[in-house]
Specification:
The chain has about 250 residues and is an all-alpha fold. The chain is about 80% helix and about 0% strand. It has nine helices and no strands. It has helices at about 5-15, 25-60, 70-110, 120-125, 130-155, 165-185, 190-200, 200-215, 225-245. The radius of gyration is 18 Å and the shape is globular.
Length: about 250
């Protein structure tokens, strides 16, 4: 298992610092406006589900474990926000994914100094929307069986104490796959190669995905998390994954 959790987490903050960089600001602005609209709409819905799940889980504790409610309640609020944050992020990404691919393209070109035979301009991004939606659905189909297992665990009394940690780990892994997919998809690499590349640098990937998953559940900050994560994932791809992947293709 290669990589470094701290270095991986740092890629998100590097991406955050690059949001206003010359040459990529326009490609940040278009999806950012869409993100704000979606998050405002979905935020109220997601919050209601968090309340319901929290009430159910804390209500299933046996009497002799009631003291754990003081620990589980804040954990459920935090982890529940992360889980629903991923779902709401997915809906945003489903519609705006081609623009994120375009952003990843421009960032990689800045970092490497090499042009990519990928998207060229907003018009090309719009034409890629059907293909981008198909790619997002592919990631959803990968996510759902694993989420179902964690959901089942969440409703098993006693064992459900582990569910916040499981939701976080699953969210971190999926966020890593979600965003590293953009620079790799620009090269038309299949999704299985995205999984392999993130698995080969698992610690860095989980560090990066963990920060993205956490920030996705923080109100207001989650409105800028997507463009920052696209940039950060592209930096992760360029620094740690690109040499190995390109070397064998």
């Amino acid at each position: 298992m290669q990589g470094n959790v701290v270095t991986g987490a740092g890629y998100f903050f590097r991406g955050l610092s690059m949001l206003t960089n010359r040459g990529i600001r326009l490609f940040v602005l278009i999806p950012l406006l869409a993100n704000i609209g979606f998050f405002l709409l979905l935020g109220g819905i997601a919050w209601g589900y968090i309340v319901t799940i929290n009430d159910y889980v804390t209500g299933t504790l046996p009497d002799w474990l009631n003291f754990l409610s003081w620990i589980l309640m804040p954990l459920m609020w935090i982890m529940g926000g992360l889980a629903t944050g991923y779902l709401s992020t997915f809906l945003v990404l489903l519609i705006t994914s081609p623009f994120h691919s375009l952003l990843a393209e421009k960032v990689e070109e800045q970092v490497t100094g090499q042009s990519l035979p990928a998207l060229e301009g907003v018009g090309a991004a719009l034409a890629e929307i059907p293909r981008g939606i198909g790619r997002e659905v592919r990631k959803l189909l990968y996510y759902l069986p694993k989420a179902l297992i964690v959901l089942i665990v969440s409703f098993i009394p006693g064992v459900n104490a582990l569910s916040p940690v499981l939701w976080f780990l699953l969210g971190a892994w999926m966020m890593s796959l979600q965003f590293v997919d953009y620079p790799m998809d620009n090269r038309r690499l299949p999704f299985r190669e995205v999984r392999d590349a993130c698995g080969a640098r698992r610690l860095s990937s989980m560090g990066f995905g963990g920060v993205v998953a956490f920030v996705s559940g923080v109100p207001l900050l989650n409105m800028i998390v997507i463009p920052a994560a696209v940039i950060g994932a592209t930096l992760l791809w360029c620094d740690e994954m690109r040499p190995a992947v390109i070397g064998r293709t």
